[in-house]
Design brief:
Elements lengths: L2 H11 L3 E8 L4 E6 L3 H23 L9 E4 L3 E7 L4 E8 L4 H19 L2
Antiparallel strand pairs: 1-2, 1-5, 3-4, 4-5
């Protein structure tokens, strides 16, 4: 599976992107790329799984439909979380100056490519 190449291209295509990681349902890294501290990306990825699970639980109690993407903005970063399957997710970390609309578009393309890799 070309996970590494898809993640690398995602980082290269988004100015200000500092890391991307695929995480499984237990918070374990499947594959990642980073221009910063890889440990930080793994920690953020693992916690992204918790956030995604809690949001899915909350949304299941309403008529909101499925969860497509989560965006978290902090003073220093933007974190994008997208489910790939029921058991896997993609997390992308950007610096605060990165253009969110461009990142959303490119991440959507990467998610589609990754989902096709998970189809068996």
């Amino acid at each position: 599976m070309p996970f590494k190449s898809l993640l690398t291209r995602l980082l290269e295509d988004i100015p200000g992107a500092s890391g991307a990681i695929i995480v499984d349902w237990e918070g374990e890294a499947v594959d990642q790329v980073a221009t910063t501290n890889e440990y930080e990306i793994k920690v953020l990825g693992a916690h992204s799984g918790i956030i995604l699970a809690q949001l899915r639980e909350a949304l299941s109690r309403t008529d909101s439909g499925g969860l497509d993407e989560v965006v978290i903005r902090t003073g220093r970063n933007k974190i994008f979380i997208a489910p790939l399957t029921e058991d896997y997710l993609l997390m992308l970390q950007l610096d605060s100056g990165a253009i969110a609309a461009h990142a959303t578009y490119r991440m959507g393309q990467c998610v589609a490519a990754l989902r096709s890799e998970f189809e068996f």
